[in-house]
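Hi X.,

You mentioned you wanted examples for the new student's onboarding notes, showing what a folding record looks like when two proteins sit in one file. Here is a clean example. The first protein comes first, with its sequence line followed by its structure tokens.
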Amino acid sequence: MKIDNSLPLEYSTEENRLKVLGFWIFLGAEIMLFATLFASYFTLADRTASGPTGAEIFHIAPVLLETILLLSSSFTIGLAIHAMRLGRQKAMLGFFGITLLLGLAFLGVEIYEFALYVHEGAGIQTSAFTSALLTTLGTHGAHVTLGLFWGIFIMIQVKKRGLTPETANKSFIFSLYWHFLDVVWIFIFSFIYLKGMM
């Protein structure tokens, strides 16, 4: 395995560069998944049947908290990758851990929010609107949950093996995934919540 020391550690081998390219292609498929969910939501957003509307069930406080938590986690994963490139493993693991804690807090607020919706009569079978809403939010939440487990496994590997081209590549690819989830959330915040509250 030939290592090119002129490149960042995560790009230092041809295999690593191909893995990053492959992950970008995977993210293209993920974009299509969420585009389909958004298209379904926008088609069904006004079909509330006898159930509540978005304006009736959306509350700004938990949504703002979720947004702050997730955007903060995007910043801390960026700091983790910066620390990794400087070879500072301890700082990298610290920022990685903070990222995962912020993600866990985001999930906690989202679960609370789901419970609130169900309490207010907006379950998955209430109407086409609630079905599309909860499916879209749930799919994003499932991705965050997967990310938490994935991030824990990467932290364990970095702790055991140190910063190698392989662990750096895995960490960098994870950061791409995490930033992608944040971008999806910005769309959810803007086009589902804010539009729904108007």
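Then the second protein repeats the pattern, sequence line and then tokens:
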Amino acid sequence: MRSRLTADDVREYEAALAERAEGLPELAGARTVAAYVSVGSEPGTRALLDALRARGARVLLPVLLPDNDLDWGEYGGPDSLTRVRHGGKMALLEPAGVRLGPDAVTAADVVLLPGLAVDARGMRLGRGGGSYDRVLARLDRKGAHPALVVLLYDTEVVERVPAQAHDRPVHAVVTPSGVRRFCARM
């Protein structure tokens, strides 16, 4: 489905996603949000990143490490991003500033997770690299309990995705048409 979207479609959906996400109480009250910069036809995040930053939230963005783990840097606006190609993978936009270390994510009140789908149980299907599985495991080890939110297109909320023992459900999915909650926050 994503491959059929035009650039205009992606921009239109991005605006709707930002509007829906900004209405989440978890994001409205968050001081620190770990997010990501969407690429290609992924559900757009840039409008939301700028809105969060404009209201004073600290926005952390991932930096892909050689072992597929994630370091973090602070988002300082569109000019603070640099395009980085990791091997034969798609080029990513990453923060150009100081690296904060992989544990920086544990300070987040909300973690926005990328994904390909989420199911009726709140289980997220990622892209298969394991980067965010490591993030979620790190949060567990450190006793951090941020709200976990996935941004997707409406057609990517499905009945069932494969899940393994280490997978854990997200709290909510935001799509252009609305929000769906899966499990209660602490």
